[in-house]
């Protein structure tokens, strides 16, 4: 787990260091672990370099374990972005158009002259379902992450307690 000093050594996070001087950002328990994973799962779908910064801000508001929230955003990477955003697009299309497997609009031709207009129309057509689907998928992943950590923590501690009392 990263330490408080290592997190705030970054130029991006240094301005926020004074906000995180409370112990609840650094103490790990079942409730904080589950909420930190939920924060990281939701913020992991944010675009590019804003994932950890948004996780930092949401962790501050929720008062959850900061290192775990930041680490959990790493489930998104260049290999997982396309499938996750495709899934988000399909969820948004389902909510907007009422059907699964909605055909994504074809990418415009690279002919000079009309590319700007065609590209803009493509982005609008593609963007609406995506803008709806990303937060919905983020909420779904956050809820699933929260439940898995909450129940997994309970299962692990009950199993560990039971094996310790049998000795």
Walk me through what this model shows.
It is a single chain. The chain is mainly alpha-helical. The chain has one domain (4-166). The protein has six helices and no strands. It has helices spanning 4-7, 30-43, 50-62, 66-72, 81-97, 115-166. α2 runs parallel beside α4. It is globular, with a radius of gyration of 20 Å. The relative contact order is 0.14.
Task: Offer a concise description of the structure.
The protein has six helices and no strands. It is mainly α and 167 residues long.
Rounded mean pLDDT is 85
**Percent of residues in beta strands?**
under 5%
Oligomer: single chain
Uncertain runs with pLDDT below 50, 5 residues or more? none
Distance between the ends: 31 Å
Total E-strand runs: 0
Key attributes of the depicted protein:
167 residues, mainly alpha, 0% strand, membrane, DUF2062, transmembrane helix, transmembrane
